[in-house]
Amino acid sequence: MTLLEVDGLCVNYGRIEAIRDVTFAVEEGAVVTLIGANGAGKTTTLKTLSGLRKVRAGAVRFQGKDITAMPAHLRVPLGISQSPEGRRIFPGMSVLENLDMGAFSRADRVKTRSADLERVFTLFPRLEERREQLAGTMSGGEQQMLAMGRALMSRPKLILLDEPSMGLAPKLIQQIFSIINDIREQGTTILLVEQNAMQALRIADRAYILETGEIVREGTGDDLVADDSVRAAYLGGDV
Ligand SMILES: Nc1ncnc2c1ncn2[C@@H]1O[C@H](COP(=O)(O)OP(=O)(O)O)[C@@H](O)[C@H]1O
Ligand SMILES: [Mg+2]
């Protein structure tokens, strides 16, 4: 089943067209990645799916329902949750408080809190060790784990991950990608935005390449990893 359909999406900042005629689909249970250079329109696309940017043209459908004009706060209970670029955790709150914020939109959050925390702590044991620590005092990698954990607390059907590997050391990047795999195996569908193209393509079922606001290539992750022109343009020496 197709969980998310993005059809001819155009989003502007004033007169600047940030994305143009962007069309892609995310099948339920899949990892789909959007890769592209800085400024390609990746974050704009995710923000639009979260309801944080207005659509100039095109449509977004989730589980077959048109949500193009749906406000952001209604999308979380519907099952769309974002781990934003640059983490955006609440630095003055503890790890636990940050995680509770992630569950805020759920009416049954009190009942399910311990099970939800357990799921997050199983994926990210480090967060359990640091549960009382102020989030702003944690390392970049720990903050990334917290941002992903917080997004999972709303029990999303679709999680949007904006550059989870940004700024992390290689060993930590491996760990984050392996956790992304675990999240998929638990049945959560993933839309992953990355500049780290090689890693993203390796775990993706389907991949789209964004260039200056437009999708210029698509294929399976394996196809694009194996494609010489893709490797030359996007994978640099990282092969
Ligand atoms: N708040 C903003 N105001 C004006 N232009 C923006 C804003 N945010 C992003 N842009 C522009 O939109 C384009 C896409 O940016 P973005 O979606 O952040 O790309 P990416 O996440 O792929 O790096 C870029 O040209 C960027 O300069
Ligand atoms: Mg971005």
* Gyration radius over CA: 17 Å
Poorly predicted regions: none
CATH homology-level superfamily of the largest domain: P-loop containing nucleotide triphosphate hydrolases
Mean pLDDT over the full residue set: 94
| H/E element order | EEEHEEHEHHHHEHEHEEHH
Q: Report the structural category.
A: alpha/beta
Number of domains: 2
Tell me the β content.
Answer: 25-35%
Task: Describe the fold and architecture.
With 239 residues, this protein is α/β, with parallel strands linked by helices. It has two domains: 1-79 and 158-239, 3-Layer(aba) Sandwich (Rossmann fold), CATH 3.40.50.300; 91-155, no CATH class. It is built from ten helices and ten strands. The strands form two sheets. It has a six-stranded mixed sheet with strand order 6-7-8-3-9-10, with helices on both faces. The longest helix has 16 residues, at 170-185. It is globular, with a radius of gyration of 17 Å. The two termini are 33 Å apart. The protein binds adenosine-5'-diphosphate and magnesium ion. The site of adenosine-5'-diphosphate has 11 residues, from strand 2 and helix 1.
Give the helices and strands, then pairings.
Elements: E1 2-13, E2 16-27, E3 31-35, H1 42-50, E4 57-62, E5 65-66, H2 72-78, E6 80-83, H3 95-102, H4 109-123, H5 125-129, H6 140-152, E7 158-162, H7 170-185, E8 189-194, H8 197-203, E9 206-211, E10 214-219, H9 221-226, H10 228-235
Parallel strand pairs: 3-8, 3-9, 6-7, 7-8
Antiparallel strand pairs: 1-2, 1-4, 4-5, 9-10
Helix pairs in contact: 3-6
The structure holds adenosine-5'-diphosphate and magnesium ion.
